[in-house]
């Protein structure tokens, strides 16, 4: 399909914008999927009341506040406790029994956002008697998300949904045991982050941080183009121990990547794979 002159100009503007962001701020969004970038950039144009992408480029080069706003636009923060309960139930009933006898269990939670799913993992490990020998590495590209996650403070508005998710994921206790309600907020018990390391990490530009038994990378790769997806899959593969497990999002997979033949499908429905070579 032939692009119109306006579409061609917008593509040039987007390429220049992403290159300027990388050269000025060090954030590399050049391998992100074009439709995602377009949606987020147009959202920022409306908010800043700017006439063009070129005008946005000029503004971010001279105003770091605008760059921070755009960075937040690119950082997707859709999350909740025990999001997709069946996924956490599969971890509980299928994956953890396979690795429970290891002396240490290392888990990498990529794109951890503000921490809801990380605390969910802590609760799951605690109930299965594995938390004391586990270490969870929770990483996100957005440093502000990491700061929020460390606090373990969330709005009480979500607790009803989170409680339902918890029980659907196989929860064994009263969910309220894990937090204290204060006004309109809840604070999760401090022991749930005793074995958690929160850190900023960029999948696009940073290296592996350890070797892991489980890697959770859900709904992150859908925002990357095919070339960048393959690059990230290399990082994930190299970060996973032999017979380690990786969990992806519902719309993601390994089959058509360069590493598809190095995993076996462990749970097709929940997009869980095991590295076997």
TrEMBL record:
Pfam families: CheR, CheR_N. Coiled coil: none annotated. It comes from the Bacteria. Residues 2-277 form the CheR-type methyltransferase domain. GO terms for molecular function: S-adenosylmethionine-dependent methyltransferase activity. SMART domains: MeTrc. PANTHER family: CHEMOTAXIS PROTEIN, CHEMOTAXIS PROTEIN METHYLTRANSFERASE. This is Chemotaxis protein CheR.
